[in-house]
Amino acid sequence: PLEELGRPRIDVVVSCSGVFRDLFINQMNLMDRGIKMAAEADEPLDQNFVRKHALEQAEELNISLREAACRVFSNAAGSYSANVGLAIENGGWEDEGQLQEQFLTRKGFAFNADKPGMMEQQADLFKSALKRVDVTFQNLDSSEISITDVSHYYDSDPTKVVQGLRDDKKKPMSMMADTTTANAQVRSLSETVRLDARTKLLNPKFYEGMLSTGYEGVREIQKRLRNTLGWSATAGEVDNFVFEDANGVFIEDAEMQQRLLDTNPNAFRDMVTTFLEANGRGYWETSDENIERLQELYAEVEDRIEGV
Description:
alpha/beta; 4-stranded mixed beta sheet; 3-stranded mixed beta sheet; 17 helices
């Protein structure tokens, strides 16, 4: 009851991974049933935002209240991820709108406890729910895998998707819970990205450790740089200094540049490409001198790889 809850009921949209969908279908069922109970509760709308929004959506989409109250979404059965990470990795995306549409299309399948065993394509309902979002939230639960170690985290991030759908085009607040230790902390996404950059990509202990492993180590460094670009594309929460400092460490230092080139020229070429792409897409503001150096370096590395 609201009297015991002591606060309004908050409307939450749950976007599950394909793995979660496969393993925890019973939990998804419980969540959906609970959300529908909240939507059908006869309570003041200013104290029950689940009901308030579900009623608005039912009228907007001409559907029943129970159907409008679907808040648990994932991929279609047998499908995994939004494939945003794949697009970022190969650089073959035209603009952020393409990435956002990809997210909405692939993640817009609703779980409905009234239709067990089915994941229905409900892109319009997914969009309608997301456009009312004020805060996005993810959980970081592994001390071994950080937000730039893999593409999964930004692949699942809806920050700019929500911004594009909101009527006022305001970017939602983005938060990240760090539960890797007993002392769990909630930080802003931008703070989490800064922390990750300082502890991994820009940390001499990290990149020197990677370089000591040889060929694969350079690829690991490049992967984290590319995943940092992914956060710029999906959330816009990467500070300019991250790219600027990374350029200083890996490109401006002639000795480091040579080490990377000699150890893994293909990964180094990808690193140069990532810097140029970050600048070209407006995620990194830097000097003309830096860009000219990168362009010249790309041509040199290309010649080296081709044996010219």
